[in-house]
Specification:
- The protein is mostly helical and about 290 residues long.
- It folds into three domains: about 5-130, no CATH class; about 140-205, no CATH class; about 215-280.
- The protein is built from 15 helices and two strands.
- The chain has a two-stranded antiparallel ribbon.
């Protein structure tokens, strides 16, 4: 309409803009780090955190869907006319619709069951996400540790809660009690959870390279600490086990693992739990329990 805003034009532009935003955020979601790393390190891209990118992707997707539905209602007569026109080309139309439906079904099923080349797309995304982790400090001691209360985090990492409080206060950290959420303490002190944990990390008992590991001691030390998301080479380095030794132990247990992959990835490929893989690497002659 002259001098006014066309509803059809407006919805077309809103659809285009929301689709563009959705596409950009989708690309960022493809390579952004895993949540446990992003929240631990306070990762940002172009000034936005993972939460920010995720939320924009959701809202733009909703806006695109609403605009697309409204656009269809505004053009309903034209759409019906198009369908009636295509009815005269029924065979071709059915073939196109059938192929499109088949492609959609194959896309969903192929992604779920990991069929190439779709599995390669997913694996490359995982590779990009894991590539943000360049040191063991960037991994939280366990999944989403920043959401734990300080006292809980201390106990789960084998630290004395009282000693943790003293260490933080000695460094000038504003903390009231062990009941505070670790991530909240970090934000209030203008640092990432990773940086805050770095202040007290010296209190975490080091893995004794001379310890004679048993299945029970491995479980006590590592169970529930998010080891599945950590690279095997880092844990073995902390344990003082040479790479040739743990690779040989895993090979004897019919387990293949690469030094730069996570314990979970290697364990899933071998059909065992991450803790079983770790036992196999630390204990000579250990036979893992397979699922």
């Amino acid at each position: 309409m002259a001098g006014g805003i066309s509803k059809k034009g407006l919805t077309s532009w809103i659809s285009f803009v929301s689709f563009l935003i959705m596409g950009i955020t989708g690309i960022v979601l493809y390579f952004e780090p895993q949540g446990r790393v992003a929240y631990w390190t306070q990762w940002k891209f172009l000034g936005l955190s993972k939460t920010g990118w995720d939320q924009i992707h959701i809202t733009s997707s909703v806006l695109f869907t609403i605009a697309a539905i409204y656009h269809l209602t505004l053009n309903w007569r034209a759409f019906l006319s198009y369908l009636r026109e295509k009815a005269g080309e029924a065979i071709r139309f059915k073939a196109e619709a059938g192929v499109s439906l088949a492609v959609g079904i194959l896309l969903i099923a192929g992604t779920i069951y990991g069929v190439p080349p779709l599995s390669s797309i997913v694996e490359f995304s995982r590779y990009l996400k894991e590539g943000w982790v360049t040191s063991s400090e960037q991994e939280p001691p366990y999944g989403h540790a920043e959401l734990s209360r300080l006292s809980i985090l201390a106990r789960k990492t084998h630290m004395e809660p009282g000693a943790v409080l003293i260490a933080l206060r000695d460094r000038g950290i504003d903390v009231t009690s062990g009941d505070e959420v670790f991530g909240d303490i970090a934000r209030r002190n203008h640092m990432s959870p990773m940086e805050l944990f770095g202040i007290i990390s010296y209190l975490v008992p080091k893995v004794d390279a001379s310890v004679n590991w048993t299945p029970q001691s491995v479980e006590v030390r590592f169970e529930g600490t998010g080891i599945g998301h950590k690279e095997l080479r880092w844990i073995m380095k902390e344990a003082g086990v040479e790479e040739a030794v743990w690779i040989s132990r895993l090979a004897n247990a019919n387990i293949s693992a690469m030094s730069d992959e996570t314990i979970k990835q290697a364990a899933e490929r071998s059909g065992i739990r991450p803790i079983e893989l770790l036992k196999s690497a630390l204990i000579d002659g250990y036979v893992p329990e397979r699922e």
